[in-house]
Write a structure and sequence with these properties.
Length: about 400
């Protein structure tokens, strides 16, 4: 069960779903229609499109502006679960899954269905560890809008889940001394759509800087793009901007210096780049670590304060404190960034460690899921059945 509420929550779930199919399990993927289109499922992968989660989230955000106490109650999670429960119950009755696997935003639905049908459920945390024994508080790691809701809502759900997978890297994260029972750290896990990268990335010239805006940002970022492009002028750099609304900003491109493309898979683009600048998304930062890119970061999403802290702690990143930076601020920060040879050296030295420690993360997760099901089956003295997941029609 998966939603496309931000760029980072769904790729680990898709990666796990596809890995389970490769292991011979039958998987039903329950997700929003736009996400289903992105994920390139084949004929062996069953899919059901779901009601759009973002409508409920945006309505809640709008209500929070009028009533600040709503930040303490993430009602949109329960409201979305209400809207899809009838459909999901029918799916469960038809497919009879042995486990529900859920992303960050589907916990209310998963908890409800697990209780209704006595099915074990697995929560996929798409970012760094938070919960019992965490070395940083939720207030330190999450922004001021999300922290109260996460602190009030998620600890009980994490305790109720039969399995919790934290798809973070053990060298990147601040792990508790002892992980709670049923919790596992898998290594960084992601899935990307295949596509062809532009030929100009292969040409000789100034170093490439990659900028990818956060998909969690809902506001117009044209002012930010313009400042970034102006800040590159006169510097020995080429800027690649991968933007969901690339067509809208094509006129900002500059021949030989600034290139604007629709979103491209980082795993195919980053090997050509030397630097990354942009929002501190957990997925983007971990891919930078794997490809040895030093980072100039700012906070633009729910958990990016925690991601920034961890990247800086490793000595591979600098941070712009004000995400609404002026031209002077970004230009000066960029000068300091590209002349800091220690950042570049440190990032390159750590790249192999992160590649090796993330290798086969999907296999490790499949192993843990299968072991959990065997354990539960043995306790209940039930025969082993195939694993399933789920989705629903857009309204």
């Amino acid at each position: 069960m998966c939603t496309q509420d931000s760029g980072g929550t769904w790729p680990p779930v898709v990666a796990i779903a596809k890995a389970l199919v490769e292991r011979g399990h039958r998987v039903l993927f329950y997700a929003e229609e736009t996400l289903v289109d992105i994920c390139q499922f084949d004929e062996n992968e069953k899919v059901e499109p779901a009601c759009y989660f973002s409508r409920f989230y945006e309505r809640w955000r709008h209500q929070c502006r009028k009533d600040k106490t709503l930040h303490l109650r993430p009602d949109f999670l329960e409201n979305w679960a209400d809207s899809v429960s009838v459909k999901v119950k029918r799916l469960i009755e038809d497919f009879q899954p042995n486990m529900l696997i859920t992303c960050f935003s589907c916990v209310a639905l998963a908890e409800r269905m697990a209780a209704c049908f006595s099915i074990p459920w697995c929560f996929i945390n798409p970012a760094f560890y938070f919960g019992a024994g965490a070395k940083r508080t939720i207030t330190e790691d999450f922004n001021r809008y999300a922290a109260p809701a996460i602190a009030a809502y998620y600890p009980d759900r994490l305790a109720a889940a039969d399995l919790v997978i934290h798809t973070t890297n053990p060298y990147f994260d601040l792990q508790p001394s002892v992980l709670p029972r049923r919790h596992h750290i898998s290594g960084f896990l992601y899935w990307e759509k295949n596509c062809t990268v532009p030929d100009y990335l292969h040409t000789q010239g100034a170093p490439w800087v990659l900028y990818s805006p956060s998909t969690a940002e809902g506001e117009d970022d044209s002012w930010q793009l313009q400042n970034l492009i102006k800040s590159i002028s006169g510097k020995p750099l080429r800027l690649l901007i991968t933007h969901p609304h690339a067509q809208k900003y094509r006129q900002l491109a500059r021949a030989g210096e600034v290139f604007i493309e629709p979103p491209l898979p980082h795993s195919q683009v980053m090997p050509h780049c030397q630097y990354y600048l942009g929002p501190a998304g957990h997925g983007t930062v971990n891919k930078c670590l794997m490809y040895g890119l030093p980072m100039l970061l700012w906070e633009a999403g729910v958990d990016q304060a925690g991601v920034c802290f961890r990247a800086k702690r490793l000595g591979v990143a600098m941070k712009i404190e004000n995400a609404r930076f002026s031209l002077m601020q970004i230009s000066e920060a960029l000068d300091r960034f590209i002349t800091n040879r220690l950042l570049l050296s440190r990032a390159r030295n750590l790249a192999q460690l992160f590649k090796e420690s993330n290798c086969n993360a999907d296999i490790r997760v499949c192993d843990v899921i299968e072991q959990t099901l065997k354990s539960i089956s043995a306790k209940k003295k039930m025969p082993k059945l195939p694993i399933r997941m789920m989705p629903e029609k857009s309204s």
